[in-house]
Fold:
Amino acid sequence: MNKGNLEKVFITFGKDVSSAMALFAFNWEHGCITHLEATSTESALEEIAMHTSTDKAYFILVDVNTESLSQAQSVILNTWVGSRAEVICFTGKEPLTDSNDIYNRLELNSHQRVQLFPIDCFEPVISAYGHVMTGFSISCVGFDDIYSILQTGTTVAMQKITCSNAKELPYSLYTGYEKLISEVKQNTFAVTGVVVVLIGDIGNQNIMQVTNACSVLLSALTKDVDSIIHTNFQSGAKTEVLLYVVLKEVADTKPFQEKIKLPQFLTR
Structure:
């Protein structure tokens, strides 16, 4: 368990990621997020210097173009923050670039890694990381855990279900998962990973029970793929289930399982 409150600083390089992050931060209701936009290499170095702390987590978000990669490279090579940040690159409509090529162009050190996604899945990717150690978490999920799920695919779909109370979380998880799968299964994609975040009021006496129930259910729904569940419980927070389904394009004409029957304990 952990109480959260880990500040996450997202440093953006490029017009697309900066606009996407500004909108994301504006709509974010859970705290623990700071956005620094690098309009130039000099401005980035100044902003980073003012926000450097060993008590924060850092993310470098980059548009895949020559100018943005060059600016990000300078920060990575010349700052303490840059040498320790998680690096996530986003592409536009063009095909995804080889992540190994991006890794080499940014000159990352041996302890760093890079992830590459299309810009249209910016929100689910950043949201999945944003909830880590933000509120009270029953299981100690870290950035490595989220990375291990997200890196299994090439894109991420997201579903949010609002519940009237905590007891609805397991059923909402089930219906939300089935709805999300039905929306994407028309394309030639296979599910490679699932991340679930449960959000609610930390004062609710049922949070332990419903979290355990959701864990059992998630295991049944995703028995053939990697999955992880964690929580962001804060005082007065509304009850929600967030589903992040990681997808990878395949040639198989039937990449999805048939609909899973509603578990018996949810029919009582």
Notes: The mean pLDDT is 87. Residues 7-130 form a domain with the Rossmann fold fold (CATH 3.40.50.2300). The CA atoms of residues 43 and 73 lie 14 Å apart. The beta strands are 7-13, 33-37, 56-63, 86-91, 114-118, 155-162, 189-201, 226-234, 240-249.
